[in-house]
Amino acid sequence: MIAQQEIDNRVDTSRAPAEMPTGAEMLIQALVHEGVDTIFGYPGGAVLHIYDELWRARDRITHYLVRHEQGAVHMAEGYARATGRAGVVLVTSGPGATNAVTGIANAYMDSTPIVVITGQVPKHLIGTDAFQEVDTVGITRPCVKHNYLVREATDLPAVVREAFHLARSGRPGPVVIDIPKDVSAARSNYSRLDHVSFPFSTQTARVNQNSAREAVQQILKAKRPVLYVGGGIVNSGAVDSLLSFAELLSLPVTPTLMGLGGFPSSHPLCLGMLGMHGTYAANMAVAESDLLVALGVRFDDRVTGKLATFAPHARVIHVDIDPANIGKNVTPTLALTGDVGQVLDQFLSLVQEQSKERLRSWWDQIRGWQLSQPLRFTGSQNQIKPQTVIRELHRLTNGEALITTDVGQHQMWVAQFYPFTRPRQLITSGGLGTMGFGLPAAMGAQLALPDQLVVAVVGDGGFQMTNQELATAVQYDLPVKILIMNNGYLGMVRQWQEMFYDRTYSEVDISVAPDFVKLAEAYGAAGFRAARPAELREVMEAALRHKGVAVVDVVVEKEENVSPMVPAGADARQMITQKF
Ligand SMILES: Cc1ncc(C[n+]2csc(CCOP(=O)(O)OP(=O)(O)O)c2C)c(N)n1
Question: What is the pLDDT of residues 187-243, one digit of tens each?
Fold first, then answer.
């Protein structure tokens, strides 16, 4: 934090006490200073001073009134992930803050830069179980990069400055600023925002050139190398460097769910996603590799399965900006802590183009795996297959839509059957796996990119967790398209029960549901339904053409499974593939 002496130096003594700004005013000024023009939020007693000030600043900051605080955070995440800018949330104390926690944890797991401002009860009531008091700093501590309980209004400008820096820098993530009501009300003679100095370095240190050289030598020596690439590629803007590096050395690339779009899915070097529902070729290539180059990843258990048998023959080079990620799950042979884009550029400066022949036998093996077990599914005349829906979506949108998802089977079908070609094109809840993420995330993305076609692909279960945000979408004219993959089940849980619990379908039947077409209409959106294969294309076309918010209820085959699948905690070679 900024030293007290420095703060004192910036005190503006020229004003009479009644003209001095309140904490709320200073907060808003500080946000404007950070370039904030969009806030997602929900008011309440503890943030009334802030809302009052926000009203006066409405020509500079637009506030989007959500219907549930979780929605506000997911919208801010969608906004942040679509653009790379920090999303901003404002909620009240107590239940406002606790409702926001799921979103905060989601942003933490998926390294998304957001700043969440929470109201708090007045300082003298803290610790008394006052009305709407919760220990927000305590509750959010494990799932934020940093949090603050602001005690003096004069601290606000510096806190805001630091919070945005922390949210955006290094491995991005959520930062919470908890502001007691008396702090936002307090007048103070400190407002010299332009004088808040910035003691933090915005530079990331380059990795040691010898380590970079050593990494490149290992990559050139390897007979069966694989690039395993994650969300860090997207966050660091390393897409072009990755493409150049992979092409220069003809290296196979497998992205994680969070890395999809970080390398073009249709590129011949791309093996498709790895992990539990990844492609056979990607998982086999990792299992047989002699060198795994892990770029901006965290060796999530949904990727590794059984750690002891994950890439058992491989040396591992791990590049990540977050030192806490390195060695957490897999001990690398060589660790490079740094921005993955910068590191790839260092690598590029150290290598010449290599002949493709060098890896000929490795590529022959990979092509064999691709041919023997491509992603596929059985078609149907009578029922809509969920995979067909995603293929159709890809066709109708020329592969250019920005897609958000909830969590479950539909999420995996999107990952498998919509080939993403650019970064930030898929916004999904990867780490926390939060049902209900898709719709609000789509709205945040739509707001950030008004000309972009944004489609939320959601499950009938997940949609019902945040569907009240349809009201927000209609209110602010955010013309997102919502594609409900309606199988009448909590599909992914049903699949596990079918495969691993003798088909005991315990509490997964959600066929008692609202009529989604009527629900859409009740909110003032357009509702569409496709229940038979013959009507799918036309209905989807009409919905995608619709100018406003559109909900499409696609009634899909109820008991379709996501395939292939590596059972949780298993060796990738125990992958269950469908027989055709
Ligand atoms: C908030 C939350 N609760 C529970 C789960 C556990 N869970 C994971 S997938 C899933 C089923 C999702 O069903 P649905 O939204 O209909 O999507 P589908 O799998 O059918 O595509 C559940 C309950 C979760 N991920 N998030």
Answer: 987 655 555 666 666 667 788 999 999 999 999 999 999 999 999 999 999 999 999
- In whole angstroms, give the CA distance from residue 350 to residue 344: 10
Nearest CA to ligand 1 atom 17: 459
Q: Which 3 state secondary structure label does DSSP give 480?
A: coil
Q: How far is CA 158 from the centre of its chain?
A: 28
pLDDT tens across 25-40, in order? Answer: 999 999 999 999 999 9
Q: Which atom of ligand 1 is nearest to the CA of 463?
A: 15
The Cα 313–Cα 289 span in angstroms is: 6
Distance 569 CA to ligand 1 centre (A): 20
Which candidate in 69, 77, 288, 469 is catalytic? 69
- Which residues does ligand 1 sit against, CB inside 6 Å? 406-410, 433-435, 459-462, 485, 487, 489-493
Tokens 């990119």 identify what position?
Answer: 449
Q: How much is the pLDDT for 324? A: 92
Give the single-character DSSP code of 441.
H
By alpha-carbon position, which residue is closest to atom 20 of ligand 1? 491
> Is the pTM above the cut of 0.90?
yes
For residues 85 and 7, what is the distance between their CA atoms, to the nearest angstrom? 28
Q: Are 458 and 405 in contact (CB under 8 A)?
A: yes
- Angstrom distance (rounded) from CA 74 to CA 71: 5
What's the 33 CA to ligand 1 centre distance in angstroms?
Answer: 40
pLDDT band at 354; cut points 50, 70, 90: confident
Query: What pLDDT does 196 receive?
Result: 63
- Distance (Å, whole) CA 310 – CA 332: 12
Q: Whose CA is nearest to atom 13 of ligand 1?
A: 490
Q: Which atom of ligand 1 is nearest to the CA of 491?
A: 20
